Amino acid sequence: MADEAQLSPYVFACEGGLVLDQPTFKMQPGMALELENFEPDVRGGYRRINGHTKWNSNIVPQTSSSTEKVLMSAFFDGNNKVIAARGEKVFEAASGSGSWSEIDTGRSSAGKYTHHRYNLGGTEFIVWADGANHATKYDGTTVTDLNATGAPANPKFVTGFKDALFFAGHSANPEEIIFTAPFTDSDFSTANGAGSIRIDSQVTALFPFRNELIIFGEERIYRLTGNTVADFVLQPITRDIGCLNGFTVQELAGDIIFLGRDGLRTVAGTEKINDVELGTISGNVKELFDDTDVDEFESTVIPGKTQYRLFKSVAGSVESTITGVIAVRKQQGFEFSTVKGIKPSSTDSFTAQGETFVLHGGYDGYVYRQESGNTFDGTNIIGRYRSPDMTMGDAGIRKNFQRVIINYSPTGAINSDLFLRYDYESPAAARPAAYPFDSSLVVALYGSAIYGTSTYGGQSNPLVRQPVEGSGFAVAMRVVDNATSAPYTLKGFQLEFDAGARR
Fold first, then answer.
1. How does residue 447 score in pLDDT terms, banded at 50, 70 and 90?
2. Cα separation of 87 and 93, whole Å?
C-alpha cells in the first residue's frame, strides 16, 4: 500500500435512495443505481430488510382441487387472531401451529377482499367484502351477512366513516356509494339516516382520513365532509387524476399514497391547484411503474419506519422474479428501493398494544408475517447495492485505489461481499474479485477528522477497513448480500486513493 499520508480520501454518506432517471455521472455519490432488498433508513443509510415467517405453520384450507391464493389476511384484535379467506371460505387461526378454523362457509365465487375493523356498542367487529357476496361482519364468535333491505348485494369496498359503514364497487352501480344509518352496521333505511352518493367515475377505493372520506375514482378524486346525510358535502379534490387500483391506497406520515397512471402520488400533492405534477412522488423510479402486464397490486405500510410497500403480481411468475417498491418518507422527501422475493395476494398492517403486525397472504396458501426473521421463510434474502460511478471530482485523473472504509451499523454478524468496478464497467477495465466483509478488520470507533459527527451522528459505528486493488478514472461499488444474517445498515464509505497520470 502507498504511504497513507499520500492517500486522498473521498467520503460520502448513503442517502438519496434508488435513482433511475439520471445518468450515472450526474448522480450524487450517496444515491443508488441498484438498491434491492435494502430499505432507506429514516435514521440514515440503507438497511438490509427483515424477512418474513409463517403466521401459522398450517396452510389455509382450500375449497377446490386447484391451487388457490389467500384472498384476505387480516389481523383481528377482537380475538387476537388472523382472518384468512381462501376460495369461497373464511378461516381464523392464532399464531403458531394451531389449525385454521372455518368461520364463514356460505360464500360463492369470491374475489379479492377488503376489510374494515370497527367498534359498535363496545363490541369489536371486522367486516369484509369481496365483490361477489353480501358484506359480512364478525365479532369473534358469530358471522352475520349484511343483507337487510337496501344493502348492496355485492360490494368490493367497505370502510367506516362518521359512525356508519360505507360500501362501494357493486357491479350494477360502480359509481355509487351506499352507507348505513349512523351507529349501526345493518340499517340501510333512508328514514333512519342511511343513503347513497354517486360520483362521475367508477369507484376504486374508499379511505377515511381525519374528518373526511376520500373517494377515489378511475379518473377523479373526491372528499366527503359533514357528519350525517343531512349535511354531507361532496367536493372534488381533482378531476384530472384518478386511482388506478384501490389496493394501493395507504395512509403514511399524514398523507395518503395511491397509484395513479403516472406512478405513485399523494393526495395532498395532487390537490395543489393547477399543478397535478406536484403530486407525483416516484419520478426518480418512474420506470418501475411502466409494467403493462401487472395482474394485481397489493400494498402495506410500516408506520415505525414511515415506509410504504407496493407489490405487483404477474400471472405465472415465481416470487423470486417479482419486483416490488419500497418508499420511505424522509424529511427531504421520499427515497426508494426495490424488494424482490415477496409476492403477496393480500396484505394488512395493524398496530395493537404498541406492536405492529404486517401480514401478507401468499399464492401458496399460507399467511406470512413480515418484519420477522432474517430469511424469506427459509429462503436467503439477496440484497444488492450499487453506487453511481464516481470520478472524485476529476474524470481526467486515473486513481489508484488502496483502501475502502465501510461505515455500517450491524445487529449481528455480517456476511456480505464488496465489489469495485472501474470505468463504467468497461470490458477493458480490471474486475477485482469480491472482498468479503472481514470482522477482523473492524475498528470500533472512528475519528471525527475522517467522519464528521454532523454527518453520522455518533462515534460508535464500526468500520470495515478493507484493502483493495485496481485503478480507473471512475469507480463504482457494489455490495451483495446472500445470507441469513441479521439486517445491518450501510451508513457510508470512504475511498482512499493516490492520483495517477492524467489522460
1. very low
2. 17
